[in-house]
Write a structure and sequence with these properties.
Helices cover 49% and strands 11% of the residues. α7 runs antiparallel to α8, α7 crosses α13 and α8 packs across α12. A hairpin with a 2-residue loop joins β1 and β2. The longest helix is centred in the middle third of the chain and has 38 residues. It folds into two domains: 180 residues, GAF domain (Beta-Lactamase, 2-Layer Sandwich), CATH 3.30.450; 207 residues, Hypothetical protein af1432, CATH 1.10.3210.10. Strands 1, 2, 3, 4, 5, 6 and 7 form a seven-stranded antiparallel beta sheet that branches. By secondary structure, the protein is of the alpha+beta class.
Length: 411
């Protein structure tokens, strides 16, 4: 557990670290993990304000995590609660006040809020102490609620949160709120770009791109661990990759409505035009400002390539012109294909995540497929359309993939 001086010394560094994270979901995970580390809490949750409700976004729990096999993650249900006095989180969001409860099972009778035992009963976990803190802007607007659970002493026994921990977490929450507001603005800008694409192509919804981005990050993390990628590099890549994967089809804004909104399958010439959305998307990120631009360009260009090089597109092209690169131009004038590990890892992962979500969703030319049919198709496409190693990782992550579907449902 950090000493008081260590906590004070780490605040500045921690603020810089939080503000370096660009993606909203990745930031919420980091806020929660750092908050727990800051006060040595066994568990915690983070809620985001959405209108007059709080959306339960992320949870972490060391005790429950230890019950899982190595590499597995906690699967949790997402839900919303009203912002009112009946729940601890709702009360904190409504009043803007922090709650420091030494025993949530013995809340004073005159208090309006109560602790719900549902999670404890379902998971066979015992919540004791809870520190519930509103995440507020400088203007006092509540962005969400951070809740850390079960403070621990040197022997790892559960104890109440001290007044010192409460004060430290108040400072931490202030810094986290600044980072959270900035990340929400970044997410809003990305979703506006998606909304532009959705106006052209009804399939490009906020829910779809959030699912694809979340699937992609889960698959990447497991792939990176298997390939011994350093932890710091994984964290950096998770941040930029999630946003890049969300923008995989942004190039469709340059495709004619006649093609995008056609209620059925494309003719050959229409399909050739549609393929150009990969190039148009990559062109948006040619003027490099950061590593995010590199990732977004890579994903946009290569997320329709096939592992075996026989069915994907656009192949080896000059991004600026969309024309085949001279050294790879085939006899028929078409671009030479990309295949195998020549396809960047971000593109290979997004290809799998995008197709999985498309098969699970309603399209103009089809109904949503059953899960059995989707999984069978993914398995059959291993080694042809998809990287076999990534397919294996996908199936290992299926419980998390399913939970992501529930977290971002179609409206």
């Amino acid at each position: 557990m950090l000493t008081t001086q260590e906590k004070l010394d780490s605040l500045t560094t921690l603020g810089i670290e939080l503000n370096s994270v660009q993606d909203l979901d990745i930031l919420m995970e980091k806020i929660l993990s750092e908050a727990r580390r800051f006060v040595d809490a066994d568990a915690g949750s983070i809620y985001i304000k959405d209108g007059e409700k709080l959306h339960f976004s992320y949870t972490q729990n060391d005790t429950l995590q230890k019950r899982l096999k190595k590499g597995e993650k906690l699967v949790y249900s997402t839900f919303t609660i009203p912002i009112d006095e009946k729940s601890m989180a709702g009360y904190a969001a409504l009043t803007g006040n922090t709650l420091n409860l030494p025993d949530v099972y013995n809340i004073e009778a005159d208090k309006p809020y109560r602790f719900s035992k549902q999670f404890d009963d379902a998971s066979h976990y015992t919540t004791r102490s809870a520190l519930t803190i509103p995440l507020k802007t400088m203007a006092g607007d509540v962005l969400g609620v951070l809740q850390v659970i079960n403070a621990r002493d040197e022997k790892r026994e559960f104890i109440p949160f001290s007044l010192e921990s409460q004060k430290a977490m108040t400072h931490f929450a202030s810094m986290a709120s600044v980072a959270l507001k900035r990340a929400r603005m970044t997410r809003a800008m990305i979703l506006r770009m998606i909304k532009m694409a959705e106006m052209r192509d009804p399939k490009e919804t906020g829910a779809h791109v959030n699912r694809v981005g979340s699937y992609a990050v889960e698959i990447y993390e497991k792939w990176a661990e298997k390939h011994n990628i350093p932890h710091d590099e994984i964290e950096k890549n998770r941040d930029i990759f999630r946003m890049a994967a969300m923008l995989h089809d942004v190039g469709k804004i340059a495709i004619s409505d006649v093609i995008l909104k056609k209620p059925g399958r494309f003719e050959t010439d229409e399909y050739e035009i549609m393929k150009q959305h990969t190039v148009y998307g990559a062109q948006l990120f040619l003027e490099r400002e950061s590593e995010f631009d590199d990732a977004a360009k890579e994903v946009a260009l290569t997320h329709h390539e096939w592992w075996n090089g026989k069915g994907g597109y656009p192949g080896r092209v000059d991004i600026k012109t969309g024309e085949p690169l001279a050294q790879y131009r085939q006899v028929d004038g078409k671009a030479g294909s990309m295949a195998g590990e020549d396809i960047p890892i971000f593109g290979r992962i997004t290809a799998l995540a995008d197709v999985y979500d498309a098969l699970c969703s309603v399209r103009a030319y089809k109904e949503a497929w059953t899960e059995d049919k989707v999984l069978s198709t993914i398995e059959e496409s291993s080694g042809t359309q998809f990287d076999p190693e990534l397919v294996e990782i996908f199936f290992e992550s299926l419980d998390i993939i399913r939970s992501i579907q529930h977290r971002f449902p179609d409206d």
